[in-house]
Amino acid sequence: MSAHPSSSAPSSEPLALLQEVFGYPAFRGQQQAIVERVTEGGDALVLMPTGGGKSLCYQIPAIARHRRGQGVAVVVSPLIALMHDQVGALEEAGVHAAFLNSTLELAEAQRVEREMMSGRLVLLYAAPERITTPRFLAQLDSLHERGLLSLFAIDEAHCVSQWGHDFRAEYLGLSVLHERYPDVPRIALTATADEHTRADIVERLRLEDAELFVSSFDRPNIRYRVVEKDNPRAQLLRFVQDEHEGEAGVVYCQSRRKVEETAEFLTAQGILALPYHAGLDAAMRQRHQDRFLREEGLVMVATIAFGMGIDKPDVRFVAHLDLPKNIESYYQETGRAGRDGLAAEAWMAYGLADVVNQRRMIDESPATEDFKRVQRSKLEALLALAEAHDCRRVRLLDYFGEASRPCGNCDNCLNPPATWDATEAARKALSCIYRFHQNNRQRFGAGHLIDVLRGKRTDKVAQYGHDALSTWAIGADVSEAQWRGVLRQLVALGYVVAEGEYGTLALTDSARSVLKGEVRLLLRQPSEAPRRGKASRGTRVGVPRNGPADLEPDAQQRFAALKAWRSEVAREHNLPAYVVFNDATLIEMARENPDSLEALAGITGVGAKKLEAYGREILRVLES
Ligand code: ADP
Ligand code: ZN
């Protein structure tokens, strides 16, 4: 099928395609520049955060070039599990796409190959190990000779780098694409931003001539929030029940056992929750993941084994019940919330035990001292973020080398915490640990230390005669929560180590600088009672009030009806609901309440094909 450009031929101009096929009025950020570069045959390396809109950066050039008679685009993706849904989404939008992977029956694979070889296909998705087989390369040769190989898109391009944690050896073979088809444009995409990974991608994929497109890594619709651990389960429950009822979310825990227990606990409280960790058998993991993608309002309780390549757009919250390893992990995990651009939350509960655990894991690991030093400094950066009393987003972006201004959409911006000077308190705590030590080298955990500092008469105090110490009750004016903050900080910064099963505390050499008053500690004042009730939404300038909760009652009803209709269609087509229309589109439909096909066509996310396929049904749903 060769294109014959004429006035009546469908447009191959990028913006027209965006509107016609995807129903979006405008490109976001650098999309337009990227799309133009690749459509015109140039190479590109795209660094864009999760949810930034990477897919369109190769899909639109693929459609444009196909309409100009340039054949098939090959998309390299490591995520076999996702190909089915990605292809489904394109077909829904009227774009002829297919995938080749090990899940296909022979006859189906042969059919796809025929479509590819004829040049009718617009996009073909395949895993890297298939692309580099002699058989597949011979097929590409044939397409190439006939001028029907339109472009290569290499998704998750950081997999080529050993620096990151997702290294896949098969990616190394992809340099063959440049060697064999130097005139075919290539676009590599990733959400990993660091310099080292970027350099590896350029070198190993031979992208020396690629134009580099680096987007801001800010995710403005995600609200960051860190709470002090008190009763973590109850805190989590309140967070989910009060603020995210019936919404999809991910809860990260460190251990398999905790995953199981937390999932059971939430289920017992009437919240639809499923566990996911590497200890479950593969079939069950797959089932749970499918349910999470396809059903609405499901909470996945998981270890970090879950998440890579989950591109469900309507995850409304990511909660951490345990501290992640470092800021990179935190950002990657929280980044799974709100890909659709609607308001979403990243919530984390953390306490002294987390600090102690993470430090211990580093100390006890078999790694080299150099490596441990790097890990410790990364942990310190994360703890500084957790303890921050200023804008969390500014700190996050700063960590990734991006300057920004206070965001108005994190807990600290919304409710600036009071701070207090904890320098003196820190010295008292250290002196008290020192007194314990003088007494037969005794060591105690944080609980007892705080009791002694506050002058609380317990059995243990009586047993050890600690009310006779010079440090007895010297910190009665500091609350227990404040003391916990002081100790967290002292452990985080390495002035104190917590060891053994009970986390008993001991001074390190560097504690001297605090005792001498050379270090000043300014800490956030712990908030007294945890807040209750719905958090105010969308107060940030520039962040639209855009969730379903912000709809008028009438519109809410329409939204519910549209969702019910969407579920049915999704089930019939065996696709996740968001592939039919995402929440943002349904919300706009519910709010605008269009009464004609023309008006419906003006809604973001309603392209020509979907208008034709669903337009009348939607108008009927809205009318009733
Ligand atoms: P990424 O792969 O970068 O994580 P996606 O390509 O999945 O992001 O896009 C995230 C969401 O944003 C998708 O729902 C997509 O349809 C939507 N999107 C992308 N570009 C635009 C745009 N220009 N206008 C409106 N929505 C967009
Ligand atoms: Zn902020």
Describe this entry's structure for a reader.
With 624 residues, the chain is α/β, with parallel strands linked by helices. The protein has four domains: 201 residues, P-loop containing nucleotide triphosphate hydrolases (Rossmann fold); 192 residues, P-loop containing nucleotide triphosphate hydrolases (Rossmann fold); 105 residues, Arc Repressor Mutant, subunit A, CATH 1.10.10.10; 76 residues, HRDC domain (DNA polymerase, domain 1), CATH 1.10.150.80. Helix content is 46%, strand content 12%. It contains 27 helices and 17 strands. The protein has a seven-stranded parallel sheet with strand order 3-4-2-5-6-1-7, sandwiched between helices. A six-stranded parallel sheet has the order 8-13-12-9-11-10, with helices on both faces. It has a two-stranded antiparallel ribbon with strand order 14-17. Helix 2 runs parallel beside helix 3, helix 14 packs antiparallel against helix 15 and helix 19 packs across helix 21. It is globular, with a radius of gyration of 28 Å. The N terminus is likely disordered. The structure holds adenosine-5'-diphosphate and zinc ion.
